[in-house]
TrEMBL record:
Residues 9-149 form the NAD(P)-binding domain. Gene3D superfamilies: NAD(P)-binding Rossmann-like Domain (3.40.50.720). It holds the Pfam family NAD_binding_10. It comes from the Bacteria. The lineage of its organism: Bacteria, Bacillati, Actinomycetota, Actinomycetes, Kitasatosporales. InterPro entries: Ergot_Alk_Oxidoreductase, NAD(P)-bd_dom, NAD(P)-bd_dom_sf. This is NAD(P)H-binding protein.
Length: 263
């Protein structure tokens, strides 16, 4: 039996990689987007806005599975609530969502914490909404994508001196590998909280930045900066890492080597 899958965030870093995998597996794919798109490559696009809930009910109608890749550092809980409410009214589709490693281990308790780690708190709030929705659900926590790490490094390299959060380590993973796992979970039964997914190696943040500078032929000093707050302390303790689940294959060095344009 062919499944109908609604994909949110289908034009983003992760979602655009998930869509063709679902199509290749034989699913009918519907993408919810704020922008109007012409249907292409067997993917149907519907217009709606999770932030306001507009168009969400029509988007979820008839969906057997919802893969929720849309998210941001602000309002992620509101978007997820609108999606859950529409899905509950439409029936009991399997809701599959992406979250971040450390969402449950990073205390975001102050305004300062929220300013620097708001995306973690947003993901944790969205996790709770999914788990308490009454819908069949699966949530996959992943470490930071290579692609987003590159965006950070590129922005910081514009500075004359690169501040590296002291004691921070990251375990970057390829978005394509996470997309493959997410598609597998979407086409399987509800799993609740799935095993975490991390990249193959852990790096000091300073070494990530130095790797980018070397790959782009730049010379910049990288200076350690100790960040205050409980969330930063949790990151220094490795809350954002999943060393027991280092299942990714592509390293940061391999990713950089494969980029046609890094600057």
């Amino acid at each position: 039996m062919t499944s109908t899958v609604l994909l949110t965030g289908g034009t983003g870093t992760l979602g655009r990689l998930v869509a063709p995998l679902l199509r290749a597996a034989g699913a009918d794919v519907r993408v919810l987007s704020r922008q109007t798109h012409e249907s292409a490559d067997g993917v149907e696009y519907v217009t709606g806005d999770l932030a306001t809930g507009a168009g969400t009910a029509a988007a979820v109608a008839g969906a057997d599975v919802i893969v929720h890749c849309a998210g941001s550092a602000k309002g992620d809980d509101v978007k997820t609530r609108h999606l859950v409410d529409a899905a509950t009214a439409a029936g009991r589709p399997h809701l599959v969502s992406i979250s971040v490693v450390g969402a449950d281990r990073t205390p975001v308790v102050s305004g300062l914490d929220r300013a620097m780690f708001g995306y973690v708190a947003a993901k944790r709030a969205a996790e709770r909404i999914v788990a308490e929705s009454g819908l069949p659900w699966t949530t996959l926590r992943a470490t930071q994508f290579h692609e987003l790490t590159l965006t950070t490094a590129r922005a910081m390299a514009r500075l004359p001196v690169l501040p590296a959060p002291a004691g921070f380590r990251i375990q970057p993973v390829a978005a394509a590998e996470v997309a493959g796992r997410l598609a597998e979970l979407a086409l399987a039964g509800p799993a609740g909280l799935a095993a975490e997914m991390g990249g193959p190696r852990t790096y000091e943040m300073r070494d990530v930045l130095r790797g980018y500078l070397e790959a782009t032929g730049r010379r910049r000093p990288v200076v350690p900066v100790r960040l205050p707050g409980r969330a930063a302390a949790a990151f220094r303790a490795g809350a954002n890492l999943a060393p027991e689940h280092a299942v990714g294959r592509q390293t940061w060095e391999d990713f950089l080597a494969g980029q046609a344009a890094l600057v």
